[in-house]
Structures are given as structure tokens and as C-alpha cells.
Amino acid sequence: MSGTYDDTAPLRASDQEDERPTSGGQVPITVVEPEGNARGGIVLLHESREFTGALRDLMNALAGEGWTVVAPKLFHRAAEDSGVGVFGDELFADFDACFDWLTRRGVFPDTIGVLGFDSAGTAAFLVATNRPIGAAVSVAAHGITEPLTAQADALVRAAPNLQAPWLGLFGVDDPATPPAQVDELRDATARAAVASLVVTYPGLHHRADSSEADDGDAVDSQTRIFDWFDSNLR
Questions:
Q1: How close are the terminal C-alpha atoms of the chain, in Å?
Q2: Keyword Ribosomal protein on this protein (predicted)?
């Protein structure tokens, strides 16, 4: 099947034991599939309850490159009032459900990557420290030196545990990611056993989910994401 559709990804049995009744043991997902055979899969973590047009455009562009994109609804456990995202065991359970959904459809584990923006970029980073996936990308990941929640480790502390090649994109004028902290993260990820790259853009021009198609830096950031997955998901 190609195109965009909604589906559900079953949680693993061990994760269902601790689920709240509202979740039903399933993770609601939105899927964008490419034409023809997929070359791999991207789990897109996002904070929004609804997809913006720019985010859908990015998902379609990734599918156009041959990736099956799976976006889980991370707030399916009646956490609609949460303002900082989903972390800890719930995050890993939801990612595992998406991972299993992809592998059941013939996607090889080492061709599965994860992508996230803002606090979901933090989540993508932490997934890459806990799961041996193919590659990870974080855009504007928060919580660099101080954890966002009790369930989310600070990125500089988690960085040496990275298990997947990781790309981080940041904007100089983003108050949530001060340049000095980004430099700390660059140094911390350099100590990991996998490849890492931190790229800083002027102003706030680091958003690959930007609707400003004429912004050269936004185009560059999207190209870097595509190239990172192209190079590492093989």
C-alpha cells in the first residue's frame, strides 16, 4: 500500500501489562508510504496533537525518498494535558511498537531511523541511547544540560550511551538551546562509540519542518536530514 493512512501498532506484551485502560494496548499511528518497495523506515516523533502542513510536507518528502514514515500519537495514554512530551518507559514502548510495525512489513532493523523536533527531538536522542537503531536526527532538542522531566535524562549525560549515528540541528537564537550548551553537547556526543554531527544555523533557520520553502537554510537542514539517513540506513 502506498499513500497516507492511519493504523495502530500493538504494544509488546510486556509493555501492555503496565498500560492504562485508555490505551487499549495499541499505539495510534499515521503512516506515509512510498511508491514501490520501501528502502527503510523513519519513526517520526512529534509534539503536536495534529500535523501541521509543513510537517506533512516533510513526511511526504521522506516518503518520496523511499522511506516508510510512521508517526505515533505519543499522547494516547490520556496525557493530553502534558506539556513536555512523553519520556521514559512509555516513550520506549511506543517506539518499540512502531519498530515492530515496520519490521513485520519487511523493513530491516538496521534501516530504521528516528526523527524528532523540539522536546520530541530530545525523545529521538534518548531513543538512540537506548535502542540499537540505524540512525537518529534531532532538531532543536531541548534539555541539553538539565533534564526536561524526571523521566528524561539530560542530553549531555546520556550522550556517551548513543547506540546510533546521531545528527543534531540547532539555531543560534533558539533560547531553549543556548550556543554554549550546544557546544557542550557536541563535545559529549564526540565521546560516543558512534558517529555524531552537530550543525548550528544562524537565527532560527534550522527548521526542516519550516513552511518557508524559500529559506535556504531550511532547505539545507532538510537536505542534511535526508543525507544522514541515506548514509546510515543501509
A1: 22
A2: no
Residues 113, 228: Cα–Cα separation, whole Å: 10
Secondary structure of the chain in the HEC alphabet? CCEEEEEEEECCHHHHCCCCHHHCCEEEEEEEECCCCCCEEEEEECCCCCCCHHHHHHHHHHHHCCEEEEEECCCCCCCCCCCCCCCHHHHHHHHHHHHHHHHHCCCCHHHEEEEEECHHHHHHHHHHHHCCCCEEEEECCCCCCCCCCCCCCCHHHHHHHCCCCEEEEEECCCCCCCHHHHHHHHHHHCCCCCCEEEEEECCCCCCCCCCCCCCHHHHHHHHHHHHHHHHHCC
pTM of the predicted structure, to 2 decimals:
0.90
Residue type, position 151, single letter: Q
Q: Nearest Cα to 225, choosing from 211, 206, 203? A: 206
Band (pLDDT 50/70/90 cuts) for residue 51 is: confident
**Residues 155-194 pLDDT 10s:** 999 999 999 999 999 999 999 999 999 999 999 999 999 9
Share of the chain above pLDDT 70, in %: 84
Residue type, 17: E
Which amino acid makes up residue 222?
Q
Read off the C-alpha cell for 181: 550548551
Which residue shows C-alpha cell 541515506? 230
